[in-house]
Every structure is written in structure tokens, then in C-alpha cells.
Specification:
Elements: H1 2-8, E1 16-20, H2 23-27, E2 42-45, H3 52-68, H4 74-93, H5 98-101, H6 114-128, H7 131-139, H8 156-168, H9 176-189, H10 213-227, H11 252-255, H12 259-262, E3 276-279, E4 282-285, H13 288-291
Enzyme class: hydrolase
Organism: Vitis vinifera (Grape)
EC number: 3.2.1.4
């Protein structure tokens, strides 16, 4: 499972492996993962090469997993929590962005790490109720402000919403920075549920009785239903679910036959001008496997 893999990627308190291989080189050769001959170099962050964003979000994963296993497997939960604490300390004491330490990760570069540190502190406080993390949250000079989304490069709402939940449960005070988390969490959540709530979303403040649990559940269900096919195109975006879903996905392992059926492994010393590979006995362009998976037509001139 993911937690076990993450444990192996964190062999020491201040060492975390963040990427295996080189994305540019890997994408230059279209082949099944088990047939790859490109170097599988492991890249890490450490005290001399920090990555607070990567370490912080991995701490979140460990903290959340520790909560999930707290009742069914207390020993494993404790182990996960130890990893979470170590990574938060590492991220906070050796600050920096991970793409500066792992240049090969430039395709998923980060714009900052303060959001991941807050996110990690929020989840560790939830997992431990330790004053260390509440002090970090309450003393932070930047709680994120009003956010319009939660994304791979913006985790502020991931801290604001859990802290707001703690305040609503009476586990944290509703004043100072704590109040900022709650107000910002409300402004992130409330506009999502109904366009009729307010046209001025920047200053929207939802009273407790404006959004009911049923409203929240209904919105969450609508998002899942959209993914599974209740959308204008009537297409499921989960491969294999429903009658209409992507048939030729941009996934090398799912779209390429075994090398034993297509001859010797492909030699990829460099990126050729026009990649080709075999799938189901038919030779097609490497780029078309992606474009053909889309629910709409894309000009072939884009497939370069």
C-alpha cells in the first residue's frame, strides 16, 4: 500500500526519496514499465538538499494514515505517526523547495512550501493534539487568505478546513489566527455549494444554518456522479466503469503489448523525431494514444 512505500522512501529522519528515474528520458521511450532499460536513479532530499514542500505533504499522508489505522492497528499507526513527526521537523528546520534539490522534478515544480507546512501542522495537531503543532498554527504569519481551490500547488485550504472543524468542535479557540483559519475555510467551502448563496463570494460568510449536512453530501455526490458519467458528454472518466469511457488511455502499461510479442526491446538513446510503438498489432503514433483517449477530436497537427 501507499503508506508502506512511503515508509521505505523515508529511511532516515532527514532523508526522503522523492523521484525515481528521469521524466524527460522516460517519456522519450514508449515502452512497458517492466521492459524499461533507462536508468532508474533514485533522487532524494536531505539536510543539504531540502524540500519542505515534499517533506511537508508526505508528513500529511503519514499523519492521515496514522489516524485511519489508530483503532485497527495501533502499532502501525504509531509507526506512521513517528514518520509524520520526523518529516515535519525536517521540513521546518531545513527549508527549501524540492525541485531545487531534485531538478529532474521540474515538470511538477512547486511555487512555495508554507502551505505544506501549515497543512502538515494541521493534520499532526489533529492526530496528536500536541501543543507543538497548535503553537505553529496559531503563530503563523500567513494563514493563506481566501483560496478558490485546493490543488497540487496550493494546500492552504487543506489547513484551513481541518482547523475550522476543530474550532467548530470546541477544540481550538475562535480568535486571533484561529479565527482567520475558520473564516478562510468558510469562504473556501461555502461558494462551492450553490451559486445562489451569494454573488459576492469574496466576502461571503456562511452562518451555521446556511449549509446543512445534506447540502454538503449532495454536493459531494454530484462531483462523484460527474466523474462517473453524469456530465454533458455522458462519459465516465473512470476507465472500465459504465458503457462509455476512455478506451486508449495515456498509460504505457495499459496500452502496449509485451516486448516478447513485439520483438526485441526498443533502443531509445535519444528522443526520435516521431515515436512509434505497437498496440494490439497495429503501429500507431505515440502521441495519438493520448489524443484518441479524449472524448473530443484534436487536430493531428497538435500531436508533435
Amino acid at each position: 500500500m501507499g503508506a508502506d512505500y512511503s515508509i521505505k522512501a523515508h529511511p532516515q529522519a532527514n532523508v526522503l526519496y522523492g523521484q525515481v528515474g528521469n521524466g524527460d528520458a522516460d517519456h522519450a521511450c514508449r515502452e512497458r514499465p517492466q521492459d524499461m532499460t533507462t536508468p532508474r536513479t533514485s533522487n532524494k532530499i536531505d539536510e543539504q538538499h531540502p524540500g519542505s514542500d515534499l517533506a511537508g505533504e508526505t508528513a500529511v499522508a503519514f499523519a492521515a494514515a496514522s489516524i485511519a489505522f489508530s483503532k485497527s492497528d495501533p502499532d502501525y499507526s504509531s509507526q506512521l505517526l513517528d514518520h509524520a513527526k520526523q518529516l515535519f521537523d525536517f521540513a521546518n528546520s531545513h527549508q527549501g523547495m524540492y525541485q531545487n534539490s531534485i531538478p529532474q522534478a521540474h515538470s511538477y515544480s512547486s511555487s512555495g512550501f508554507q502551505d505544506e507546512l501549515l497543512w502538515a501542522a494541521a493534520w499532526l495537531y489533529r492526530a496528536t493534539n500536541d501543543k507543538t503543532y497548535s503553537d505553529y498554527l496559531s503563530s503563523s504569519g500567513n494563514t493563506g487568505g481566501t483560496r478558490t481551490m485546493f490543488s497540487w500547488d496550493d494546500k492552504y485550504s487543506g489547513a484551513q478546513v481541518p482547523v475550522a472543524k476543530l474550532i467548530l468542535k470546541g477544540k481550538a479557540p475562535n480568535d486571533g489566527n484561529w479565527g482567520n483559519y475558520k473564516n478562510q475555510g468558510e469562504q473556501f467551502i461555502c461558494p462551492s455549494y450553490s451559486d445562489s448563496l451569494s454573488a459576492a463570494k469574496d466576502s461571503l460568510n456562511c452562518p451555521a444554518d446556511s449549509i446543512s449536512p445534506d447540502d454538503i453530501i449532495s454536493f459531494a455526490r454530484s462531483q462523484v456522479d460527474y466523474i462517473l458519467g453524469k456530465n454533458p458528454k455522458g462519459m465516465s472518466y473512470m476507465v472500465g466503469y459504465g458503457s462509455s469511457f476512455p478506451r486508449q488511455v495515456h498509460h504505457r502499461g495499459a496500452s502496449i503489448v509485451q516486448s516478447t510479442r513485439m520483438g526485441p526491446p526498443v533502443d531509445c538513446p535519444g528522443r526520435p523525431p516521431h515515436l512509434r510503438f505497437y498496440t494490439s498489432g497495429k503501429k500507431i503514433s505515440a502521441t495519438s494514444i493520448y489524443f484518441e483517449s479524449l472524448p473530443y477530436k484534436v487536430s493531428s497537427t497538435l500531436a508533435t
